[in-house]
Write a sequence for this structure.
Protein backbone atom coordinates (compact mmCIF):
# COMPACT_ATOMS: atom_id res chain seq x y z
CA UNK A 1 0.00 0.00 0.00
CA UNK A 2 1.05 3.58 -0.53
CA UNK A 3 0.27 4.68 3.03
CA UNK A 4 2.91 4.75 5.75
CA UNK A 5 2.28 2.77 8.93
CA UNK A 6 1.53 6.02 10.79
CA UNK A 7 -1.39 6.63 8.46
CA UNK A 8 -3.00 3.26 9.14
CA UNK A 9 -5.31 2.60 12.05
CA UNK A 10 -5.66 -0.72 13.81
CA UNK A 11 -9.11 -2.20 13.35
CA UNK A 12 -9.10 -3.21 17.02
CA UNK A 13 -8.94 0.47 18.04
CA UNK A 14 -12.30 1.27 16.45
CA UNK A 15 -15.79 0.83 17.82
CA UNK A 16 -19.29 2.04 17.11
CA UNK A 17 -20.24 5.36 18.65
CA UNK A 18 -23.50 5.62 20.57
CA UNK A 19 -24.85 8.33 18.28
CA UNK A 20 -24.32 9.91 14.89
CA UNK A 21 -22.57 12.87 16.54
CA UNK A 22 -19.82 10.56 17.79
CA UNK A 23 -18.88 9.40 14.30
CA UNK A 24 -15.48 11.02 14.05
CA UNK A 25 -12.87 8.92 12.28
CA UNK A 26 -13.45 6.67 9.28
CA UNK A 27 -17.01 7.77 8.46
CA UNK A 28 -18.96 6.20 11.28
CA UNK A 29 -16.36 4.94 13.71
CA UNK A 30 -14.23 6.47 16.41
CA UNK A 31 -10.96 5.34 17.91
CA UNK A 32 -11.15 3.80 21.35
CA UNK A 33 -9.95 6.46 23.79
CA UNK A 34 -10.15 4.25 26.85
CA UNK A 35 -13.55 5.51 27.98
CA UNK A 36 -15.20 2.22 27.10
CA UNK A 37 -16.88 0.74 24.07
CA UNK A 38 -20.43 0.95 22.84
CA UNK A 39 -21.82 -2.52 23.53
CA UNK A 40 -23.51 -4.49 20.77
CA UNK A 41 -24.62 -8.10 20.77
CA UNK A 42 -22.05 -10.09 18.84
CA UNK A 43 -22.97 -11.94 15.70
CA UNK A 44 -22.49 -15.69 15.69
CA UNK A 45 -19.90 -16.60 13.03
CA UNK A 46 -18.11 -19.90 12.52
CA UNK A 47 -14.83 -19.56 14.40
CA UNK A 48 -12.88 -20.93 11.44
CA UNK A 49 -13.84 -17.79 9.47
CA UNK A 50 -12.77 -15.28 12.13
CA UNK A 51 -9.50 -13.33 12.13
CA UNK A 52 -7.86 -11.27 14.85
CA UNK A 53 -8.89 -7.64 14.40
CA UNK A 54 -5.67 -6.47 16.07
CA UNK A 55 -3.79 -7.78 13.02
CA UNK A 56 -5.89 -5.75 10.57
CA UNK A 57 -4.88 -2.17 9.73
CA UNK A 58 -6.95 0.19 7.62
CA UNK A 59 -5.99 3.18 5.49
CA UNK A 60 -7.95 5.32 3.07
CA UNK A 61 -11.56 4.71 2.09
CA UNK A 62 -11.93 3.29 -1.42
CA UNK A 63 -15.67 2.70 -1.63
CA UNK A 64 -18.91 2.08 0.15
CA UNK A 65 -22.59 2.91 0.39
CA UNK A 66 -25.35 3.36 2.91
CA UNK A 67 -24.70 0.07 4.67
CA UNK A 68 -20.91 -0.21 4.66
CA UNK A 69 -17.58 1.45 3.95
CA UNK A 70 -14.61 -0.20 2.25
CA UNK A 71 -10.97 0.66 3.02
CA UNK A 72 -7.56 -0.31 1.79
CA UNK A 73 -6.00 -2.43 4.48
CA UNK A 74 -3.16 -4.64 5.57
CA UNK A 75 -3.48 -8.11 7.08
CA UNK A 76 -0.83 -10.76 7.53
CA UNK A 77 1.67 -8.64 5.56
CA UNK A 78 -0.55 -8.45 2.47
CA UNK A 79 -2.82 -5.78 1.04
CA UNK A 80 -6.53 -6.44 1.54
CA UNK A 81 -9.91 -4.74 1.25
CA UNK A 82 -11.63 -4.15 4.58
CA UNK A 83 -15.40 -3.78 4.51
CA UNK A 84 -16.83 -2.35 7.72
CA UNK A 85 -20.55 -2.44 8.31
CA UNK A 86 -21.78 1.10 8.87
CA UNK A 87 -23.84 1.80 11.97
CA UNK A 88 -26.93 3.74 10.98
CA UNK A 89 -29.53 4.60 13.60
CA UNK A 90 -31.23 1.49 14.90
CA UNK A 91 -29.15 -0.67 12.55
CA UNK A 92 -26.51 -0.96 15.27
CA UNK A 93 -28.85 -3.09 17.35
CA UNK A 94 -31.16 -4.40 14.63
CA UNK A 95 -31.09 -8.19 14.48
CA UNK A 96 -31.96 -8.20 10.77
CA UNK A 97 -28.92 -6.06 10.10
CA UNK A 98 -26.70 -8.49 11.95
CA UNK A 99 -28.29 -11.45 10.21
CA UNK A 100 -27.52 -9.85 6.85
CA UNK A 101 -23.87 -9.55 7.89
CA UNK A 102 -23.78 -13.18 9.06
CA UNK A 103 -25.32 -14.30 5.78
CA UNK A 104 -22.83 -12.30 3.70
CA UNK A 105 -19.90 -13.85 5.56
CA UNK A 106 -21.32 -17.35 5.18
CA UNK A 107 -22.07 -17.05 1.46
CA UNK A 108 -18.87 -15.25 0.46
CA UNK A 109 -16.74 -17.73 2.40
CA UNK A 110 -18.40 -20.56 0.45
CA UNK A 111 -17.89 -18.93 -2.95
CA UNK A 112 -14.53 -20.06 -4.29
CA UNK A 113 -14.34 -19.16 -7.97
CA UNK A 114 -11.81 -17.33 -10.14
CA UNK A 115 -14.39 -14.66 -11.01
CA UNK A 116 -15.45 -13.95 -7.42
CA UNK A 117 -13.38 -11.90 -4.97
CA UNK A 118 -11.50 -14.08 -2.49
CA UNK A 119 -12.70 -14.14 1.10
CA UNK A 120 -9.92 -13.71 3.68
CA UNK A 121 -11.79 -13.57 6.98
CA UNK A 122 -14.27 -11.74 9.17
CA UNK A 123 -14.39 -10.05 12.55
CA UNK A 124 -17.31 -9.16 14.79
CA UNK A 125 -15.40 -7.31 17.48
CA UNK A 126 -15.03 -4.39 17.87
CA UNK A 127 -16.91 -3.76 14.60
CA UNK A 128 -18.52 -6.09 12.05
CA UNK A 129 -15.90 -6.49 9.32
CA UNK A 130 -15.31 -8.57 6.19
CA UNK A 131 -11.79 -8.82 4.74
CA UNK A 132 -11.23 -9.83 1.10
CA UNK A 133 -8.50 -9.65 -1.51
CA UNK A 134 -7.75 -6.10 -2.65
CA UNK A 135 -8.69 -5.18 -6.22
CA UNK A 136 -6.87 -1.94 -6.99
CA UNK A 137 -8.03 -1.19 -10.54
CA UNK A 138 -11.56 -0.03 -9.86
CA UNK A 139 -14.95 -1.32 -10.93
CA UNK A 140 -16.61 -1.77 -14.30
CA UNK A 141 -18.87 1.26 -13.84
CA UNK A 142 -15.94 3.64 -13.41
CA UNK A 143 -13.97 1.99 -16.19
CA UNK A 144 -16.77 2.36 -18.73
CA UNK A 145 -17.40 5.95 -17.66
CA UNK A 146 -13.70 6.79 -18.12
CA UNK A 147 -13.66 5.77 -21.80
CA UNK A 148 -17.15 7.01 -22.78
CA UNK A 149 -18.32 7.68 -25.48
CA UNK A 150 -15.86 5.15 -26.93
CA UNK A 151 -16.87 1.49 -26.75
CA UNK A 152 -14.91 -1.47 -25.51
CA UNK A 153 -13.37 -3.84 -28.02
CA UNK A 154 -16.02 -6.45 -28.83
CA UNK A 155 -13.80 -9.37 -27.87
CA UNK A 156 -13.03 -7.77 -24.49
CA UNK A 157 -16.73 -7.07 -23.92
CA UNK A 158 -17.59 -10.71 -24.55
CA UNK A 159 -14.75 -11.78 -22.27
CA UNK A 160 -16.16 -9.60 -19.49
CA UNK A 161 -19.67 -10.98 -19.96
CA UNK A 162 -18.27 -14.51 -19.85
CA UNK A 163 -16.54 -13.74 -16.54
CA UNK A 164 -19.85 -12.52 -15.12
CA UNK A 165 -21.84 -15.43 -16.51
CA UNK A 166 -19.38 -18.00 -15.17
CA UNK A 167 -19.45 -16.46 -11.71
CA UNK A 168 -23.25 -16.45 -11.75
CA UNK A 169 -23.42 -19.99 -13.10
CA UNK A 170 -21.30 -21.06 -10.12
CA UNK A 171 -23.48 -19.18 -7.60
CA UNK A 172 -26.74 -20.55 -9.00
CA UNK A 173 -25.33 -24.08 -9.04
CA UNK A 174 -24.71 -23.56 -5.32
CA UNK A 175 -28.23 -22.22 -4.72
CA UNK A 176 -27.09 -18.62 -4.17
CA UNK A 177 -28.87 -15.55 -5.60
CA UNK A 178 -26.77 -12.37 -5.76
CA UNK A 179 -29.68 -9.88 -6.07
CA UNK A 180 -27.46 -6.84 -6.71
CA UNK A 181 -25.66 -7.59 -9.95
CA UNK A 182 -24.50 -4.29 -11.47
CA UNK A 183 -21.32 -2.72 -12.95
CA UNK A 184 -20.15 -1.15 -9.68
CA UNK A 185 -20.07 -4.61 -8.06
CA UNK A 186 -17.76 -5.97 -10.77
CA UNK A 187 -14.06 -5.35 -10.11
CA UNK A 188 -11.27 -5.30 -12.69
CA UNK A 189 -8.19 -7.50 -12.41
CA UNK A 190 -4.71 -6.00 -12.57
CA UNK A 191 -4.42 -6.45 -16.33
CA UNK A 192 -8.00 -5.17 -16.82
CA UNK A 193 -8.77 -8.21 -18.94
CA UNK A 194 -11.11 -9.93 -16.47
CA UNK A 195 -13.77 -9.18 -13.85
CA UNK A 196 -14.51 -10.46 -10.38
CA UNK A 197 -17.90 -10.27 -8.68
CA UNK A 198 -18.04 -8.55 -5.29
CA UNK A 199 -20.46 -7.35 -2.60
CA UNK A 200 -22.63 -10.18 -1.33
CA UNK A 201 -24.50 -7.89 1.07
CA UNK A 202 -27.90 -8.63 -0.52
CA UNK A 203 -27.18 -12.22 -1.51
CA UNK A 204 -29.05 -15.15 -0.03
CA UNK A 205 -29.76 -18.81 -0.52
CA UNK A 206 -32.65 -19.43 -2.87
CA UNK A 207 -35.85 -20.71 -1.26
CA UNK A 208 -39.18 -21.75 -2.74
CA UNK A 209 -41.14 -19.53 -0.34
CA UNK A 210 -41.45 -15.74 -0.42
CA UNK A 211 -38.36 -13.53 -0.15
CA UNK A 212 -37.89 -9.80 0.39
CA UNK A 213 -39.05 -7.80 -2.63
CA UNK A 214 -37.80 -4.51 -4.07
CA UNK A 215 -34.22 -5.41 -3.19
CA UNK A 216 -31.15 -4.47 -5.20
CA UNK A 217 -30.45 -1.35 -7.29
CA UNK A 218 -33.43 0.09 -9.16
CA UNK A 219 -31.87 0.53 -12.59
CA UNK A 220 -30.83 -3.14 -12.75
CA UNK A 221 -33.77 -4.58 -10.81
CA UNK A 222 -35.88 -7.34 -12.36
CA UNK A 223 -39.59 -6.54 -12.88
CA UNK A 224 -40.77 -9.29 -10.50
CA UNK A 225 -38.82 -7.64 -7.67
CA UNK A 226 -40.69 -4.36 -7.85
CA UNK A 227 -44.21 -3.03 -8.04
CA UNK A 228 -45.74 0.05 -9.61
CA UNK A 229 -48.11 0.27 -6.64
CA UNK A 230 -46.67 1.52 -3.32
CA UNK A 231 -45.88 -1.31 -0.91
CA UNK A 232 -44.59 -1.38 2.68
CA UNK A 233 -40.86 -1.72 3.22
CA UNK A 234 -39.83 -5.34 3.61
CA UNK A 235 -42.78 -6.68 1.61
CA UNK A 236 -42.13 -10.29 0.62
CA UNK A 237 -42.86 -11.81 -2.76
CA UNK A 238 -42.08 -14.92 -4.82
CA UNK A 239 -39.19 -14.93 -7.28
CA UNK A 240 -36.14 -17.03 -8.06
CA UNK A 241 -32.56 -16.90 -9.36
CA UNK A 242 -33.76 -15.54 -12.70
CA UNK A 243 -33.68 -12.03 -11.20
CA UNK A 244 -29.90 -12.21 -11.67
CA UNK A 245 -30.33 -13.11 -15.34
CA UNK A 246 -32.36 -9.93 -15.90
CA UNK A 247 -29.67 -7.80 -14.22
CA UNK A 248 -27.05 -9.51 -16.36
CA UNK A 249 -28.92 -8.51 -19.53
CA UNK A 250 -28.61 -4.80 -18.73
CA UNK A 251 -24.89 -5.19 -18.00
CA UNK A 252 -24.47 -6.96 -21.34
CA UNK A 253 -26.34 -4.13 -23.06
CA UNK A 254 -24.11 -1.59 -21.30
CA UNK A 255 -20.93 -3.44 -22.31
CA UNK A 256 -22.00 -3.48 -25.97
CA UNK A 257 -23.11 0.17 -26.10
CA UNK A 258 -21.17 1.85 -23.27
CA UNK A 259 -24.33 3.67 -22.30
CA UNK A 260 -26.19 3.64 -19.00
CA UNK A 261 -29.50 1.73 -19.19
CA UNK A 262 -32.47 4.14 -19.12
CA UNK A 263 -30.03 7.05 -19.17
CA UNK A 264 -31.66 10.32 -18.11
CA UNK A 265 -34.46 8.56 -16.27
CA UNK A 266 -34.81 8.74 -12.52
CA UNK A 267 -33.91 5.28 -11.13
CA UNK A 268 -37.39 4.74 -9.72
CA UNK A 269 -38.99 5.78 -13.01
CA UNK A 270 -36.64 3.40 -14.80
CA UNK A 271 -38.03 0.65 -12.56
CA UNK A 272 -41.57 1.62 -13.56
CA UNK A 273 -40.48 1.31 -17.20
CA UNK A 274 -39.16 -2.17 -16.43
CA UNK A 275 -42.47 -3.18 -14.89
CA UNK A 276 -44.25 -1.96 -18.04
CA UNK A 277 -41.98 -4.16 -20.18
CA UNK A 278 -40.03 -1.23 -21.62
CA UNK A 279 -36.41 -2.06 -22.43
CA UNK A 280 -33.38 -0.15 -23.80
CA UNK A 281 -33.09 0.17 -27.56
CA UNK A 282 -31.26 -2.60 -29.41
CA UNK A 283 -30.70 -0.55 -32.60
CA UNK A 284 -26.92 -0.39 -32.13
CA UNK A 285 -26.54 -3.94 -30.79
CA UNK A 286 -24.74 -6.51 -33.00
CA UNK A 287 -27.45 -8.70 -34.53
CA UNK A 288 -26.17 -11.96 -33.05
CA UNK A 289 -26.59 -10.65 -29.50
CA UNK A 290 -30.18 -9.44 -29.78
CA UNK A 291 -31.80 -12.87 -29.14
CA UNK A 292 -29.61 -13.27 -26.05
CA UNK A 293 -30.58 -9.84 -24.72
CA UNK A 294 -34.29 -10.28 -25.40
CA UNK A 295 -34.24 -13.71 -23.76
CA UNK A 296 -32.40 -12.51 -20.66
CA UNK A 297 -34.63 -9.49 -20.07
CA UNK A 298 -37.91 -11.26 -20.84
CA UNK A 299 -40.76 -10.08 -18.63
CA UNK A 300 -41.63 -13.70 -17.83
CA UNK A 301 -38.75 -15.12 -15.70
CA UNK A 302 -39.39 -18.65 -16.99
CA UNK A 303 -38.41 -17.50 -20.50
CA UNK A 304 -34.99 -16.32 -19.37
CA UNK A 305 -32.11 -18.74 -19.97
CA UNK A 306 -29.96 -20.34 -17.31
CA UNK A 307 -26.38 -19.14 -17.00
CA UNK A 308 -25.20 -22.54 -18.24
CA UNK A 309 -26.85 -21.70 -21.56
CA UNK A 310 -25.50 -18.15 -21.55
CA UNK A 311 -21.90 -19.26 -20.98
CA UNK A 312 -22.24 -21.83 -23.76
CA UNK A 313 -23.51 -19.21 -26.20
CA UNK A 314 -20.87 -16.61 -25.28
CA UNK A 315 -18.05 -19.18 -25.38
CA UNK A 316 -19.09 -20.06 -28.93
CA UNK A 317 -19.08 -16.41 -30.00
CA UNK A 318 -15.70 -15.75 -28.37
CA UNK A 319 -14.16 -18.86 -29.92
CA UNK A 320 -15.39 -17.76 -33.34
CA UNK A 321 -13.91 -14.26 -32.94
CA UNK A 322 -10.60 -15.70 -31.74
CA UNK A 323 -10.35 -18.16 -34.60
CA UNK A 324 -11.06 -15.41 -37.13
CA UNK A 325 -8.19 -13.35 -35.70
CA UNK A 326 -5.78 -16.29 -35.89
CA UNK A 327 -6.56 -17.20 -39.51
CA UNK A 328 -4.72 -15.12 -42.14
CA UNK A 329 -6.26 -15.76 -45.58
CA UNK A 330 -3.76 -16.54 -48.34
CA UNK A 331 -4.07 -14.49 -51.52
CA UNK A 332 -4.03 -17.55 -53.81
CA UNK A 333 -6.29 -19.72 -51.68
CA UNK A 334 -9.52 -20.91 -53.17
CA UNK A 335 -12.45 -18.80 -52.10
CA UNK A 336 -14.68 -20.68 -49.69
CA UNK A 337 -18.32 -20.28 -49.03
CA UNK A 338 -18.92 -17.99 -46.03
CA UNK A 339 -19.71 -19.80 -42.82
CA UNK A 340 -23.40 -20.13 -42.09
CA UNK A 341 -24.00 -17.64 -39.29
CA UNK A 342 -26.87 -19.74 -38.01
CA UNK A 343 -24.56 -22.71 -37.53
CA UNK A 344 -21.85 -20.49 -36.07
CA UNK A 345 -24.13 -19.50 -33.21
CA UNK A 346 -25.17 -23.07 -32.37
CA UNK A 347 -23.02 -24.22 -29.49
CA UNK A 348 -22.58 -27.58 -27.84
CA UNK A 349 -25.20 -28.60 -25.34
CA UNK A 350 -24.39 -26.95 -22.01
CA UNK A 351 -23.43 -29.10 -19.06
CA UNK A 352 -26.14 -30.37 -16.79
CA UNK A 353 -27.53 -27.88 -14.27
CA UNK A 354 -29.87 -28.23 -11.36
CA UNK A 355 -32.30 -25.69 -12.83
CA UNK A 356 -34.69 -26.34 -15.68
CA UNK A 357 -33.37 -24.94 -18.97
CA UNK A 358 -35.30 -22.47 -21.08
CA UNK A 359 -35.79 -22.83 -24.84
CA UNK A 360 -33.10 -20.18 -25.36
CA UNK A 361 -30.87 -22.19 -27.71
CA UNK A 362 -33.74 -23.09 -29.99
CA UNK A 363 -34.66 -19.42 -30.24
CA UNK A 364 -31.06 -18.55 -31.14
CA UNK A 365 -31.03 -21.15 -33.92
CA UNK A 366 -34.04 -19.57 -35.58
CA UNK A 367 -33.32 -15.94 -34.86
CA UNK A 368 -31.80 -15.16 -38.26
CA UNK A 369 -34.64 -16.59 -40.36
CA UNK A 370 -37.31 -14.04 -41.27
CA UNK A 371 -37.13 -12.45 -37.86
CA UNK A 372 -38.89 -9.21 -36.91
CA UNK A 373 -38.48 -7.36 -33.64
CA UNK A 374 -40.04 -4.49 -31.79
CA UNK A 375 -37.62 -1.88 -30.52
CA UNK A 376 -38.40 -0.12 -27.27
CA UNK A 377 -38.14 3.64 -27.30
Amino acid sequence: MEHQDSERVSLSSLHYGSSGEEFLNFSGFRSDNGDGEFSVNLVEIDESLLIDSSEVYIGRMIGGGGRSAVYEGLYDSRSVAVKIMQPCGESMTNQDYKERFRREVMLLSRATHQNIVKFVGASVKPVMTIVTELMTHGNLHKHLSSIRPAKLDLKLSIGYTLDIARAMEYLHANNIIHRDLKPSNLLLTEDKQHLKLADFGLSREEVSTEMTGEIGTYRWMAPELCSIEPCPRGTRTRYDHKVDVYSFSLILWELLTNKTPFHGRDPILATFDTCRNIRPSVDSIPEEFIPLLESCWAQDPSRRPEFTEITGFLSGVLDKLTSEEEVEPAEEADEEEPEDIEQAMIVAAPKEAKHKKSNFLSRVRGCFCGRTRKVAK
Q: What stands out?
A: The radius of gyration is 23 Å. The longest strand covers residues 56-64.
